[in-house]
Design goal:
By secondary structure, this protein is an alpha/beta fold. It is 39% helix and 15% strand. The strands form two sheets. A six-stranded parallel beta sheet has the order 3-5-6-7-8-9. A three-stranded parallel beta sheet has the order 1-2-4. The protein is globular. The protein binds fe (ii) ion.
Length: 237
């Protein structure tokens, strides 16, 4: 089961796909890359997105894309990539921004030093809201101060971690990203695809590279976890 849990594939909702044409092209690339299903996860910024308006627009774009998608392209689901904000663990909108109707919520941590309060809030999303936070593209933070504290949330069972496909394919932190995987921190894979040219989906390339570097068991684990989310997504449709 190849599930891409993080993508900006909806047309004209965020800084991702700029048109229906581009979204359809991204869908066909995803098919070539072997994706069985994709969760569209447009950015949600609590500071300036109106929940009702934003989710309505996203739903409309999602339905439109589904209707236009060619036969045989990956199944589509709707979720969000929720940027961390103060009060995320107490806010009633948090419950409405999950991946489909599952208990999983994709949370993007800030690109700033991680404070104790942030860690407490992520923990509280799990303990108080009963949701499972999935930390988006943890590979981007591997060199940040406090990164180990973030990973402790995973160690302690309060959060799961998602890695971007590009993490082990390019950039300066490839080795650290592989180490995260071999240390068992990564549960899910995302393309974080934004466009056909700048950040195309490369999930099959990730799979090939990972299998070559570490053997098949790590990707098999990602597939197993993906299947669990996929089954929950299907149930909630
Ligand atoms: Fe993203």
């Amino acid at each position: 089961m190849l599930l891409d849990i993080h993508s900006h594939i909806l047309p004209q909702i965020d800084d991702g796909s700029s048109s229906m044409k581009e979204s359809l092209k991204l869908m066909s690339i995803q098919k070539e890359q072997g994706a069985d299903a994709i969760i569209a996860t447009p950015h949600f910024y609590a500071d300036y997105c109106d929940l009702y308006e934003y989710t309505q627009n996203a739903l409309e774009a999602f339905n439109h894309l589904k209707k236009n998608a060619n036969e045989g392209t990956p199944e589509l689901f709707l979720g969000y990539e929720v940027k961390y904000f103060n009060g995320i663990s107490e806010n009633e909108l948090t419950n409405k921004l999950t991946l489909g109707n599952t208990e999983f919520i994709l949370v993007e941590m800030p690109y700033a030093p991680i404070s104790e309060k942030m860690l407490d809030e992520i923990e509280a999303i799990s303990l108080n809201l009963g949701l499972t936070p999935i930390l988006a593209h943890v590979d981007r933070y591997v060199s940040f101060p406090g990164f180990r504290d973030v990973m402790k949330l995973v160690d302690d069972g309060y959060a799961k971690a998602q890695i971007n496909a590009d993490s082990i394919l390019c950039g300066s932190d490839k080795r650290k990203s592989l180490k995260l995987i071999s240390d068992g921190y990564i549960s899910y894979l995302g393309s974080d695809a934004h466009s056909v040219n700048e950040r195309p989906p490369r999930i099959n390339e990730f799979k090939q590279r990972l299998n070559k570097k570490l053997g098949p068991s790590y990707f098999e684990k990602i597939e197993k976890n993906s299947l669990e989310i996929y089954q929950k997504l299907r149930k909630g449709v």
